[in-house]
Amino acid sequence: MVYYTLMGQRSLAKLQHVSGEREAAWDTLTAARRLAEKSENPRRWRLIDAAAAELQLREGNVAAAARTLEKAAISAESHSEFERLVYARLLLAQGQPRTAERVLNGLETAAVKEERNGSLITVYVLQALCKRAAGNRAAALDRLGQALSLATSPGYRRVFLDEGPAVAALLPQLRHVAPAFVIELLQAFPHEAAPAPEGLAGPVSKTQFEILRLLDFGLTNQEIADKLGISIGTAKWHLHQIFGKLQARNRTEAVTKAREQGLL
């Protein structure tokens, strides 16, 4: 039961994030992290950490996503398909398309064998981006065309929209694969978002703002947890998110940067 609740919260957070409700998305993941901790099942913790890293990548905060995945021990060797997909996205964002493609090739083999077209569509889209980043545009178009062929009937719009401008740049040359679907996708792509303020790589939630305030007073992790009625693990997780958003290396630097941004 807990697993399905966490899956639902992960999906809700993603929906909130793509709808522009970023603070709500992070609050949803915070609630999910608390629930995951209660289960004492590391796989459930990793599910939420991988979801957090995915949102960090959507926000362009590659360094924070890398730290999140490293701390959760998520890598190319993870058993979970979702974890490996997020890890492949990280490699791609870090400018390692060939390494990312090796991870994706393993996922493709499993998805083909098990006839999981939903997974295969996602893998094909990411493989297309890997090939594009490696300078092989023809192969990128071929892979994206395969994804479109599978996705047209079920209408997997979100898979394409989530990958942003890089996919949008390839779509006009693939109108012949699925004319109506491609036009629908191109119309659905959002306008380019305004860049985040300098020094701030993502929105700070209400809980994280309160933690920053308590950091400024010099409270320890345990004292922060006690004040907010959360576990020390959740407090540390929030601190990890705060460091990423402020691009800070420690508590002192986080407070200094928060003051510079007018958060304190």
Automatic annotation (TrEMBL):
InterPro entries: Sig_transdc_resp-reg_C-effctor, TPR-like_helical_dom_sf, TPR_MalT, Tscrpt_reg_LuxR_C, WalR-like, WH-like_DNA-bd_sf. The lineage of its organism: Bacteria, Pseudomonadati, Pseudomonadota, Gammaproteobacteria, Candidatus Competibacteraceae. This is Winged helix-turn-helix transcriptional regulator. Pfam families: GerE, TPR_MalT. Gene3D superfamilies: Tetratricopeptide repeat domain, Winged helix-like DNA-binding domain superfamily/Winged helix DNA-binding domain. Transmembrane segments: none annotated. Signal peptide: none annotated. Residues 197-262 form the HTH luxR-type domain. The keyword DNA-binding applies. Keywords: DNA-binding, Transcription, Transcription regulation.
